[in-house]
């Protein structure tokens, strides 16, 4: 059986009992190492599981699935994913490939940022489409995520913004020359994501009540599920200079808020300005 096992969001102990049993009996154990990270490294997982863990990078998962799934028709192979296994389309693709090869599979679910974002106090059933905010470069500044945020906001819905992760990336020069040299991992911070949103706002000069402004409320979360989890409610302008600490970060743009949601965000408000904004009926 090919098992896709969710690890949750915190550390090695967040794996489910069922998932741990599978890991300890599996012939091989892989750790998907590019769509997300835990607050602990591979060594901590190996110590807790009592098993060797093989890192599976993007190239292995997307181009060497035969090697990944080898013998899983006669033995148990575990593929570990931070959060929930079906939180990324890459893992759905693995299921399709397994099905094509006649390989049996089973998914062991766990907590992901999609449901754990409830920690910030905004109700899960009031969220619209999830968006991804990517790192900008000097010559590439996509804005499609901004339009999706506006669409959600016009419908009164909150937006969860997943922030870019760069793992085992190559420069264009190294890629073209075929040199196996990789850049250090990079993680988009909530403050940089807010800065990019503010730049779009300035460029578009949108001032209507339904659009985002520098004074719009946002919520940043960092290291959700860990002991040092951090949540901050702020204006976009304030968030652009807020240090949320080490990765991973996510950003939420609220839509219409119930009084209880506003009360919850007040728990995470640090400035008098955002406390004042949250105490009014205007949530823009």
* Count of helical stretches: 12
Overall 3D shape: globular
Gap between N and C termini, in Å? Answer: 50 Å
Task: Count every beta strand, where a strand is a DSSP E run of 2 or more residues.
Answer: 12
Low-confidence stretches: none
Q: Topology, please?
A:
Layout: E1 2-6, H1 17-25, E2 28-32, H2 42-49, E3 54-56, H3 58-63, H4 65-69, E4 77-81, H5 89-100, E5 105-108, H6 113-116, E6 131-133, H7 144-154, E7 159-163, E8 165-166, H8 172-176, E9 186-187, H9 190-204, E10 217-222, E11 230-235, H10 236-239, E12 249-253, H11 259-266, H12 272-278
Parallel strand pairs: 1-4, 1-5, 2-3, 2-4, 6-7
Antiparallel strand pairs: 7-12, 8-9, 10-11, 10-12
Protein name: diphthine methyl ester synthase
InterPro entries: 4pyrrol_Mease, 4pyrrol_Methylase_sf, 4pyrrole_Mease_sub1, 4pyrrole_Mease_sub2, Dphthn_synthase
Catalytic activity: 2-[(3S)-amino-3-carboxypropyl]-L-histidyl-[translation elongation factor 2] + 4 S-adenosyl-L-methionine = diphthine methyl ester-[translation elongation factor 2] + 4 S-adenosyl-L-homocysteine + 3 H(+)
